[in-house]
Design a protein that fits this description.
276 residues; mainly alpha; two-stranded antiparallel ribbon; 6 helices; 4 strands; 63% helix; 4% strand
């Protein structure tokens, strides 16, 4: 703190002193209070002008009410709190809406995936049914043709006359000298050849369906395994009908085995099929 001297008595005093503590000399005159109406000088603490009687309010004297500042501060704080609360509520609302949106999207995607899986499963089941019944139909045609092949083959060797085989075994009224000639006559026949074409077309359809079925969904794995066994028997049977090989004995044995296997495999597969 800086020091100075009193201009009256010369004693050292603070430069901020309003009055000398040694001699009482007034160094800084205090601001005089005056009446707002008549301009008369007022004494400290006066609540009424002694000259005109005007009441003196604290605000008139230039004093600041600390209470007003405090009240104003409270109002600002409440407004800020309200805005903060509104902002928090808005953020929470947005978060809730976003969460609901995400969950709804997930549910929709799951529903779509489930619907797609169901559709694929149904389509697989339909194709499996089609393949099984197509094999059964082709096997039936192959059985008819194969039995006629055996009959012609046998009658040509043993020179046995039958109305169904005579045009192949004895086309000129007498038996051919070689059973192969009888078989050639059979496969050159337009009606029989049409049946063979139908069997080959059936095989093409079945082969195409089996390619589509090679990756079964979980619920059809056992059905597909059973279908594959029937397919193997079916291919053996149809191949023997369209292209007979070996001797009459081996052909007959192989054909009968393939025919029986096809029927047995179909019976095992029926538990997985829908009735047509």
């Amino acid at each position: 703190m800086a020091m100075t001297t009193c201009p009256n008595c010369g004693e050292p005093i603070s430069e901020k002193a309003k009055k000398c503590v040694h001699c009482g000399t007034v160094l800084i005159e205090e601001e005089k209070k005056i009446c707002p109406d008549c301009g008369a000088e007022l004494e400290d603490g006066a609540d009424t002008c002694p000259k005109c009687g005007c009441p003196i309010e604290p605000e008139t004297a230039g004093e600041i009410s600390p209470q007003q500042v405090e009240v104003t501060g409270v109002k600002i704080t409440q407004k800020s709190k309200k805005m903060i609360i509104i902002a928090i509520i808005a953020i929470i609302a947005v978060a809730i809406i976003a969460a609901i949106g995400v969950q709804t999207h997930k549910k929709n995607e799951a529903a779509k995936a489930a619907a797609q899986a169901k559709k694929q499963s149904e389509e697989y089941g339909e194709n499996l049914n089609t393949a099984a019944y197509s094999m059964l139909s082709g096997a039936s045609d192959a059985e008819t043709c194969g039995n006629l092949v055996k009959q012609v083959w046998n009658n040509a060797i043993y020179e046995k006359s039958e109305s169904e085989t005579n045009k192949f075994t004895k086309p000129k009224g007498y038996f051919v000298s070689d059973f192969n000639d009888a078989l050639e006559n059979l496969y050159a026949d337009s009606d029989f050849n049409s049946q063979i074409d139908e069997i080959n077309d059936n095989k093409d359809l079945v082969n195409s369906l089996m390619k589509e079925l090679k990756n079964p969904p979980k619920e059809y794995k056992e059905a597909y395994a059973s279908l594959s066994k029937m397919y193997d028997a079916y291919i053996s049977l149809t191949n023997l009908a369209t292209d007979p090989t070996g001797s009459l004995q081996t052909f007959s044995q192989n054909f009968n085995d393939a025919d029986s296997n096809t029927v047995n495999c179909y019976n095992a597969l029926k538990v997985y099929l829908e009735d047509e």
